[in-house]
Carbohydrate ABC transporter membrane protein 2, CUT1 family (Tistlia consotensis USBA 355), 284 residues
Amino acid sequence: MSGRRALRLRRRLLRVAADLTTWALVLAVAFPLFWMLGTSLKPSAETFALPPTLIPAHVTFEHFRTLLFETPFPTYFLNSVIVATGTTLLVIVVSLLGAYSVVRFRYRGRRLAAQMVLFTYLLPAVVLLLPLYLILASLGLVNSLLGLILAYTTFAMPFSLWLLRSFILAMPIDLEEAAMVDGASRVEAFLDVVVPQALPGIISAALFSFILSWNEYLYALVFNRQDHTKTLPPGVITMLQQNTNTEWSLLMAASVMMAVPVIVAFVFLQRHLTSGFGAGAVKG
């Protein structure tokens, strides 16, 4: 009996130690975010006060007001929303259809085509910078949001295609064949069976594409030089370069505003990551 009690006590201690380690890692990762939020709410005079404090003594929203009404930040924010959303939608449509084609159809060169798509994902983004710029310039899409969406699609789509390919490979083809035997067309079987089953992969690919497009700096800096077409990463840098002294509180306020859509998108979509498992397996 004492041996069992000792074993239970050891398991509890190990569980407590694991929980404490997990929370310590979470706090270590989250601490910069709390510091960023606290700094954005501090008056400028309190930013470098000694000793430094995580929680501001006097909360102010002046930096957010300045950011929204006295800088071009809202324009950059709207541009980023359009580019990230457009890229995500385009990537999901193209990669889902491409993954389905590679898995379900038999044609010459399909395996090579899939491998070449993966190879383009392995290339550094800077390698494609000049070719993409020349292509977009010839199409008249430099300094446009559409050009940036197409550029981001080139390196978000390969990863998404391979991710969705693995989901479709894991689906039994019997479900689609049963739907078509019941009178569904190939398109209807794809929409009613494949898409619900691949929903977790679709959401994961959507999150990847959105975050990549939202945070990307190099392509946005090179392709869109006009102020009204800039997205947040190069736009905020340009905004700060206009001032001789870096306003850290304003920068932290901009960082908080930039982080909110990504956090909201993840919180909203992660609830549905498992909603696709089993969906469409039973014909209604």
Summary: The chain has two domains: 2-60, 65-270. Residues 275-284 have pLDDT under 50 and may be disordered.
